[in-house]
Write a structure and sequence with these properties.
The complex is a heterodimer of chains A (247) and B (312). Chain A has 247 residues and is mostly helical. Chain A has a single domain, classed as Fumarate Reductase Cytochrome B subunit. Chain A contains 11 helices and 2 strands, in the order βααααααααβααα. Chain A is globular, with a radius of gyration of 22 Å. Chain B has 312 residues and is mainly α. Chain B has a domain of 38 residues. In chain B, strands 1-2 form a two-stranded antiparallel sheet. The C terminus of chain B is likely disordered. The chains are: A mainly alpha (247), B mainly alpha (312). The interface between A and B is large, with 58 and 50 residues.
Chain lengths: 247, 312
Amino acid sequence: MTDAKTQEFQRFNVTFRIQHVILLVTFLLLAFTGWSLKYPEPALEHAGWWIRLWGGPKTAGIIHRVAGVTMVLDFLWHCIYVTYSLLTGKMKFDPVTTIVPLPKDVKDAMQNILYFVGLSETKPKFGRYNYIQKFDYWAPFWGMAIIGLSGLVLAFPTKAAIFLPQWSANWIWEVFFVLHSDEALLAITYILIMHFYSEHLKWENFPMSMTWITGKISMDAFKHEHPLEYELELKENPEAFKNPGNP
Amino acid sequence: MKKVLLLLALLLGSLYFLSPPASAETFTCLACHSTMKGKIRTDKGVLIDVQIDEARFSQSVHGGIGCTTCHKTFKDNPHEPPKGDVSKSLSELAGLVSPKAKVDPVAYAACSECHGDIYKRVSESVHGKNVMEKKQSDGALCIDCHGSPHYIMPSESKDSSVNKWNIVKTCGECHDKEEIAKKYNLGTHIVEKYDESFHGKKYKLGLPGAPTCVDCHGAHDIKKWDDPQSPVAWDNRIATCGKCHPGANKKFVAAITHKPVGKHNPIPFYAEKGLIILTAGTIAFVIFHVFLEAFADIRDRVFRKRKEEPHD
């Protein structure tokens, strides 16, 4: 490793990057158009500038539905792709590289918070995904499952009603409605605080981490932020680290 | 010059004819009633506003109608009674609406002379029966929804109280009141729950297809929801909801109840509470974490310069 500064590590392949871009675009469209339905301001008055920005209630509704279906398809594509990769051995389960939460993540979180307040000398050694990144993955994962399902029910209520059991009819609509809107608020605020801090505001990423476009992180960041994966890669694939540009 | 003046006179004259024709008698009445200010107490002790806004009256749908078309008798006031004849059926109807009409029941009933069909439907509705059969004075009749008959605008007009974009507020004038809900055993927070529903939110956003109260409950012939004739009675809902939602079934039509989520309906109640706790808890944790992390990041940058690791 003679030139660690200019070397980069390929963290995400092009499929994951495309899936992320679709998720990002549909998420913003859904949040912007859905916001005006969650907190409606009369479009006929001055306060309705937000809904007018999205072409009025009719157009905003169409955007919301199209973006929603696109996001659900993106979600399904991701699930199928990951399952396929695991089944064919393109992707392997390893405690160091997995996105699945493990007991180590709880320990990491506690140690990290202790480090923040100065009660621990060292930061925990993270694998491919630290506990925040795992949260960043599973929060939208379950969010998409719940908001996507309730969204489909609310978008096609008469069709959904065919499948609903009779005994649930008196309360389930209210539940779907509450789930869809409250989970969405949770997702928006989470992204706005956590994701924005770690990928945009953080010192080394400001104004934006480029990983979502290039899929790469610098060797330096790789070594510091994901030391366990770095060590694993070094052990398993030492050749790649010797050839700059082809990690 | 003379020709121009003549032309101008002709133009001004034609303007006069374009305005709604008002009878000579109306001019006579308005001579006083358009300028009178304040209220007058009748013999029966009711305070009434006797001023008529001439401009608004002449622009209203009734602007062309003479005063005595409706005000056929004045028992309670100093005028000499006009000689208009009051038919037997009209005076019977006036008797029926008298719980509501404290001042001029004949004028109140006179709407039926032109709007007979609608008046008949109203008298068979829950609103009409409440006044005419139960003799209640707080039930709705024509002017409670349409406003003063002197200033009624076409329902397409933004100034009409029954215009699509005003009707929810108009219904809410009574149905938002808790004492009315209590007295007639109706649901409370009805308008609030409508506002929170998808129907109400789309209405607020100005979606032309969004349904208002009258689209589901009916207007002049409105019945209470447990009346089998009501469009929102359980057996009629599939047809009523089906107007906008083709394929509506029994499980679908249970969606809209206007009932507040409470302990009587525990699943949505606790689902909502649980979600609020989940959301608040997550956000609290996230804010806590981000603040600490930012603090530690700045501290490390400023005070603990990260040691360059030796290259291997």
